[in-house]
Amino acid sequence: MTELWALGAWDLSELVRGREVSCRQVIEAHLRRIDGVNHRVNAITVTLGEESLDAADAADRALARGDEVGPLCGVPMTIKENIDVAGSATTMGIVALREAMAAADAPPVAELRAAGAIPIGRTNMPEFGMRWHTDNALRGATVNPWSAEHTPGGSSGGEAAAVATGMSPLGIGNDGAGSLRWPAQCCGVSALKPSLGRVAQAGERAAGPTPFAFQLLGVQGPIARHVRDLRLAFGHMCGRPGGDPWYAPVPLYGPPLPAPVRVCVVTDPDGAETDPEVAGALRRAAGALADAGYLVEEGRAPALARASEIYTQIMSSYGRVHREQPPVEAVASPGFVHFWQAYEPIWTRAAGEQAFDPMMERASIARLWSAWMSRTPLVLAPIRTRPAFRVGSDLDPRWLADWPDTMRLAVVVNLLGLPAVAVPVGPAGDLPHAVQIIGPRFREDLCLDAAAVVEAAIGALTPIDPR
């Protein structure tokens, strides 16, 4: 029999609701897995052992009484340390916030808990969520379970590594610049970056208010090993507004599209070189979609370079909580300080020519994409045009010089508030690879459908034991 920790959220929910296993058995299996492997990857920062077992026992009593239970009853979940979980610290990877206890769950955590999911742990992230490698002074570095020499990604790197190693079947992270999709690529798992407004963000968090740039560009979303688990979790993350002014109660499924559904494969992000292994991953995914009846064509995305610049301008101008920020040395680790000293001049150049009104330009770019996607509703693209990098590379300004170019196809999704699913497409050498499928706003269903086709053709890559 397959170990319980190796099963996905969907399979676990079926076993629990069918009374084949108890909620306590499921939680205990995952806590044992955490005890067995977390010391090798440092993905889970806080284990909610007693609380999760108490919740499992309560769920088992409800099942025994014949009470109606949620569709995620007994399914463990882990939550990134910048998302509020009642009674747990929202640290954002910062030493000064280690006691920033949340009084209430963030809206998507509350929704999943109401559907029966049980929080079992918090996961690691880089300081401020502002680095593409997961390390901080509070928790230390997370290790990529495929290769300790390579990054697990960031900023949801702890979530991706926890899910990849079977410590959790379902992780909740967020994505403001590829922060769900890039770790999914590095660790070989699936992730959904929802549309802006689809999943509510808390108006006021334990760690402080949310700056405008993160309200506009960042969203909460699930990480899992299987696309159907993303769909299951996503369907139970969208139900309450939580004081979020961007929240939109839109149906989960849109109208069917006439067949064949067009897919544009974008391999050239306005001149940024695509690594041959990443290009090979795109070809494998494109072949799977074509074999399933999608009409797959190569093309170029409109205004991609300018979209990246406008993204950078908005994040630079409106990504701070305070007008006067404390010196980075006062709040961050030497590693983050080194990273930011190397990257800040590159980030500044990446803003390009200053827009008179960045939001006005954003609207113009959105109209271009809307017209393009009305003809070709799905876009198959790299997440980053290079594979997971070796640990320490992002401290070298020469290596970092083209980072904004390699991430254009990730950040344009954030700028325009579009949905995208990251789906693994097999290993190459020692590392996994993944692609993203981008859809029109509020058409997560189309992205998930296509990602499920790719997964069915290629297969899941995880769970794995740390290597």
UniProtKB/TrEMBL annotation:
EC number: 3.5.1.4
Signal peptide: none
GO molecular function, one term: amidase activity
Key word Disulfide bond present: no
Coiled-coil regions listed in the entry: none
Keywords (A to Z) from UniProt: Hydrolase
Residues of the Amidase domain: 26-448
Cellular component, GO annotation: endomembrane system
A Pfam family assignment: Amidase
Gene3D superfamilies: Amidase signature (AS) domain
PANTHER family tied to this protein: FATTY-ACID AMIDE HYDROLASE, FATTY-ACID AMIDE HYDROLASE 2
Protein name: Amidase
